[in-house]
Amino acid sequence: MLTVLVNAVWAKDTIRVDGITYTIRSLYKLTVEKGEYSGDIVLPTSVLYNHNSYAVYEIGEEAFKDCTGLTSITIPYSVLWINKYAFQGCTGLTSVNFTNNNFRSSITILEGAFYGCTNLTTISLPDNCIALDRFLFYGCTNLSSFIIPNNVESIFQDAFYGCSSLTTITIPASVVYLYGGHPFKNTGLTEIHVAEGNTSFCSVDGVLFNRDTTTLIKYPEKKAGNVYVIPNTVTNVGDFSRSENLTSIIVPNTVTQFFETFGFENCPNLTSVHFPDIEAWCDITFVTSYANPLYSGKNLYINNELVQNVTIPDGTTEVKRYIFWGCTSLNSVTIPSTVTLLREGAFGYCTNLTSFYSYAATPPAAYCFNEVDKSKCNLYVPATSYLLYKNANEWKDFAQILPISGEWRWVKFLDWDDSLLWEGYVEYGTAATAPTTPSRENYTFIGWDKDFSNITEE
Questions:
Q1: Which of 27, 244, 277, 307 is the most buried (most CB within 10 A)?
Q2: CA 369, CA 349: separation in Å to the nearest integer?
Q3: Residue 323 near residue 291 (C-beta atoms within 8 A)
């Protein structure tokens, strides 16, 4: 009688073949597991075990993490899943090769798969790759060239973060989505190109835009040239961070929003921001202080004139957040009587501000004077509102609060024991209004000791 042996196969059974550790993840499929690996490794397409052939299908999470002696790896077409941080910290890895057998199924390569592979210079992903996950090549500082496969549809946040040797890249026609902003922060890029036929994005002079050029997505950090003129089709401005050559930026009045969280962080040579219209500038939305080009640029020019004194337009009820953040050219600000709210950071880090004029009778709610030296900045307010400002949050911290116009005298009414009955500004040459008649036990009030019908002295 012929005996047929049928072996039970259990997922997670661990085997080791030719120095590679695997787990049997399902019938006839293997996952490469964590181990101490070094040298040049060629993964097989399949492994024979217990008379069964198992496809090498998956590379497990952190399978090769911190294998600093690993110098190259060849990944077969059978691998269709590479887990998170599979090769993180493989600082000796210089090349990654994928064999391509026109496999129809797409390969999934998860976040941070090659995170921190600082010596990786060569990698060519297979044609069945349809997405570049976030942090995929994070910190691959020696990756000097990379071709995005023509079937990639999505590229995720910071996929190429820190690829400082990468100087140019082309987004293929297949790419539809850039998730989480864009993938090209802190790189060596001088130009970003977009292939013809892409329906979502385009490139103008090496700068990345959406297809209809209404949104500027990314200005390459190492782009040559000192002055950049934003096209007048643009309404939304994104990332200029770490633009090391940029000294001046010219913004059209079509722009209504700066949307990138760290949009102008660390632009070390940016010294001027140009805009045509102060009223339109006051209407722009900045999502953070870093999103404002003044964060790095410091000096605002309206119609080519340096803004030192600014008057917020009449009828304004709310001064928007971060609108003049970091504007060190600013010496004086005037807000109209209609303003009721000064939003966060509106005048933050305006460190040369010496005078602030508020025509609002009621002190506006204010959260806006970050790092303004209020001991050196005079606050001018309606004389009749002096005490309101003197006791209002943010405003009361100004060392000098003065009448906004005219000639005024400071008048105090004191009781018999020098306790204060009333104080405030009275216009020169006019009468002060006496406070409520005071009372004192066993005494009769008979008047004041000084005439106040024509105030000319303090």
A1: 307
A2: 7
A3: no
pLDDT digits (tens, 9 = 90+) for 229-254: 999 999 999 999 999 999 999 999 99
DSSP state of 129: B
DSSP label at residue 322: T
Mean pLDDT of the 402-431 span? 83
For residue 372, what are the contacts with CB-CB under 8 A and spacing of at least 6?
A: 347, 348, 349, 350, 351, 353
What is the reported pTM? 0.85
> CA 164 → CA 72, 170, 188, 220, 356, distances in Å?
21, 16, 4, 12, 45
Cα distances (Å, whole numbers) of residue 303 to 281, 298, 319, 329: 12, 16, 21, 15
User: Whole-angstrom Cα distance, residue 413 to residue 257?
Assistant: 52
Strand order in the sheet with 39-42: 39-42, 70-75, 95-98, 122-123
Query: Which residues fall within 8 angstroms of residue 313, CB to CB, at 6 or more apart?
Result: 278, 279, 282, 336
- The C-alpha atoms of residue 436 and residue 422 are separated, in whole angstroms, by 9
Contact 200, 211 (CB under 8 A): yes
Q: 312 or 457, which is more confident?
A: 312
Angle at 17 between CA 16 and CA 22, to 5 degrees: 50
323, with CB counted inside 10 A (0-12, 13-18, 19+), is buried
For the CA atoms of the chain, what is the radius of gyration? 34
- The confidence score (pLDDT) of residue 103 equals 60
The answer to whether the CB of 145 falls within 8 A of the CB of 165 is no
